[in-house]
Write a structure and sequence with these properties.
Blueprint: H1 5-24, H2 44-63, H3 78-97, H4 101-105, E1 107-110, E2 113-116, H5 117-141, H6 173-181
Antiparallel strand pairs: 1-2
Helix pairs in contact: 1-3, 1-5, 2-3, 2-5, 3-6
């Protein structure tokens, strides 16, 4: 196994986490932003656009991977974003699986610096996780229930130390795409239970 297989495996799971968070929104949520009159905070729609466009640019201009597809769907609906990103990120994943260690270690231009492709990939994954955190905050502002992204949430049972379970919206990509295309079929959520969902309850 290549030394950098862990980066490929991480990208594979991170793309599913992106799509899982997007599946928790509703179509009417797309215009919502943190403050209704402040354009500095991206709307849900703008977050989806940014994920698709910025990842496409990073892979094309820095990592040298072009999937030969427009980064945005023709009709910018929630489901269309899910389908577009699933297809494009899947093609990127297939290309990454064929790369050997020298490719990952080759230094490329990262804005005004020179970094290895492995370093760039770590930064790309962190970039995606950063914006996904912003999106889960938007879900809370919208009073939505949250499935797991990395661990338990207040809606899956609360805190890990209280043995709250991890409950993903969908077990895999195919189930997610099929479920969302048919109107949604996410796993049921039990709620926080009888213990506080935070270490500092008030």
């Amino acid at each position: 196994m290549a030394h950098y297989q862990f980066l490929i495996d991480t990208y594979e799971t991170e793309r599913l986490k992106v799509l899982s968070v997007w599946s928790m929104f509703k179509d009417e949520h797309l215009p919502f932003r943190p403050h209704p009159t402040d354009p500095r905070g991206r709307s849900v729609h703008e977050q989806m656009v940014h994920q698709c466009v910025s990842e496409n640019l990073w892979f094309m201009s820095i990592l040298g991977i072009d999937v030969g597809a427009p980064p945005l769907p023709e009709n910018e609906t929630r489901l269309a974003f899910i389908q577009r990103y699933a297809e494009d990120s899947g093609k990127r994943l297939d290309v990454l699986r064929d790369k050997d260690d020298p490719w990952w270690e080759e230094r490329v231009t990262f804005f005004e610096e020179c970094r290895s492709r492995a370093w760039v990939m770590v930064r790309r994954i962190a970039h995606t996780a950063h914006h996904r955190g912003q999106q889960t905050a938007l879900l809370r502002m919208l009073d939505c229930r949250l499935h797991s992204t990395y661990g338990p949430t207040a809606d899956t049972g609360g805190l890990m130390q209280n043995k709250a379970p991890v409950i993903y919206a969908y077990p895999d990509l195919d189930t997610l795409l099929g479920g969302e295309a048919s109107g949604g079929a996410k796993a049921p959520l039990p709620g926080p239970g009888d213990k506080p969902p935070t270490e500092r309850p008030h």
